[in-house]
Sequence to fold (228 residues):
Amino acid sequence: MISPTTMINTKRFADTQQAAEGCAAHIIGLLDQAISRGSDATLAISGGTSPKLMFEVFAKTKFAWDRVQLFWVDERGVPPTDSQSNYKLTDDNWLTPGKFPSANVHRVQAELAPEVAAKLYEADIVKTFKLKPGELPRFDVIHRGMGPDCHTASLFPGEPMIDNQTGIIGHVWVEKFKQWRICWLPEKTRRSRCTRFSIVRSIQKSIRCRSPTILPTSPGFWTRLLAS
Fold:
């Protein structure tokens, strides 16, 4: 059950292109607000297929990208040149064509052993946010997608790490894909300044994620993953 204090706003668009443009515009507006407070904005993005069109919009948008620190909510355990890489998807459709400043890119080094990649990524976050021991980062904007089986940020229904309330970064084995994933842990995503956004591209996804045969059974699943 989602916390009663959680505010979830949904918007529907005629097609995926309009959804991508609407989501991009909203995120850019939030980043602009964050920058106006005097420091760099922090943005974390998802992978998968849904954000591709949104990245293309970002690439064409004139914005103070040099004031945005970019992170990923998860990454597949593959090199950055692999077609499955979330980084490669972003780079091909936004970073390179949009000339995003490379110094502001905080990539998961997923070509390394998963435990090493997770440790290095967490260290990068700690350094960027100047965190003290035990502190968790507070991002300005987090964008996340949702898979047809209702997984998000590489955390699938039934994954024990969903109940982790203290860590920042973890690594999980996804049996379905026979693949390691480096991912954020739920408590960190709850501490963003702004609500995360998901582009559900098909009716099938929407229906399946409401199905009692698909919905996660863990009592804390949606509270951990969706609550702000």
Summary: The mean pLDDT is 79.
